[in-house]
Amino acid sequence: MTLYKKTGSKGSISLHYRGIMCSIFPLTNETNESYYTKMGNDAIIRHMKEGYNIKKQIRLLTTYCEVFASRRYHKQKVAKLDHIVFCQALMGLIKLKQIENDDKNGWLCLKKPKKKKNISST
After folding, report:
1. Counting Cβ atoms within 10 Å, is residue 55 exposed (0-12), middle (13-18) or buried (19+)?
2. How is the chain classified by DSSP, letter by letter?
3. Does residue 98 contact residue 56 with C-beta atoms inside 8 Å?
4. pLDDT at 10
């Protein structure tokens, strides 16, 4: 099972749905927590411009997350672009208050651990 996974200079953000860790994305100065949460906002606005009402968007985003999580659970391959779309869908559901950002669903920031200084006796 290979996740789209990188640790950025500031750590990483992991995305969970129904208790399954689905994706991990890097955190850097440019791609911080607000960058990923904004992806959900942008997806909602884009769908509104395309003519999807909120009810239809919720069904679409939920279905995508369900299928993606099922694929991850069964250890099937998932393309890099699918991870990005999953991030948009999950953040959109959180923004629309359909799921709570808790220990089963949502995102978790994993800050990069600080290196321990090697103190040696001389």
Report:
1. exposed
2. -------BTTEEEEEEETTEEEEEEEE-SSS-HHHHHHHHHHHHHHHHHTT--HHHHHHHHHHHHHHHHHHHHTT----HHHHHHHHHHHHHHHHTTSS--SSSSEEEEEEPPPPPP-----
3. no
4. 85
Out of 38-42, 45-49, 89-93, 109-113, pick the least confident.
109-113
Question: What span, in angstroms and rounded, lies between the C-alpha atoms of 27 and 111?
Answer: 8
The amino acid present at 26, given as its one-letter code, is: P
Q: Which two tokens stand for residue 33?
A: 């927590």
Check: CB of residue 94 under 8 Å from CB of residue 106: yes
- From residue 54, give the alpha-carbon distance in Å to each of 14, 58, 86: 26, 6, 18
1: pLDDT strictly greater than 70: no
Neighbouring C-beta atoms of residue 53, cutoff 10 Å: 9
Residue matched to tokens 């955190």: 27
